[in-house]
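Bumping with the actual sequence this time:
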Amino acid sequence: MTNTRKLITFDWAIKRLLRSKANFGILEGFLSELLKEEITILDVLESESNKDYAFDKFNRVDLKVRNQKQEVIIIEIQYDSEYDYLQRIFYGVSKTAIEGMKETQSYAGITKVISINILYFDLGSGTDYIYKGSTRFIGLHNHDLLELNAKQKQLFKKESIESLYPEYYLIKINRFNDVAKDTLDEWIYFLKNEEIQESFTAKGLKEAADKLSIMKLPEEEQKAYEHYKDDLHYQASMFESSFGDGYHTGEVTGMEKGLVKGREEGRVEGRVEGREEEVSRKQPER
């Protein structure tokens, strides 16, 4: 049996460890495997949820970093189901793309944003566990792909129109079957199981195995981590309970409204039938 090493969760690592430049190698490894290119992180940008516990942001973790190409990468971890999640990430990307833009700046200065979403719920309908979204323009008649011309390539320093627009990655952790077929799968295995097998060779995982071990945390950090895990369980229970209560309340309310409506319709129908019978009695016999 392959040996494994129990590690802290990736969201905890993002909150407490991966913001440090000394640990950029772990995050760079993950991003390089996912994006299929060498990623170097220049700095961590301020994000809207630098909170200590998942309970503070409904189990949501945001991390914004800037890479060597001046692109902004957003990493978000979501545990609870959210039906409008696709619109939420669209909003976050749109806001990020223009937040640093000056009024006098041309549109060429809009920031390229890459949105990476690590999801522990089943978003949408699909059988894969990693989805990528991008923007391309296809001819309606000739079905050709619209390309940048030479001047545009020089201006944007990009080779394709697709590379100008945001990219979205949806990683549906619970869909992964625990069989690591490549180095990216090795990262998905870690994200799902909080373990790294010693045979894994993906970029950044060796550093993760060395630096994200629970036993290597200082005692205070270990206690804080256990408290964080308890918060995760509590939040999950509260979510399920509130969902159950809401469903039950809605069901009871619906039944009560149905009964009231039924009684009201019965009274109306009874009055109509009564009037019809009264009219019938008053009519003279022929």
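The tokens above came from a reply further down the thread. The radius of gyration is 28 Å.
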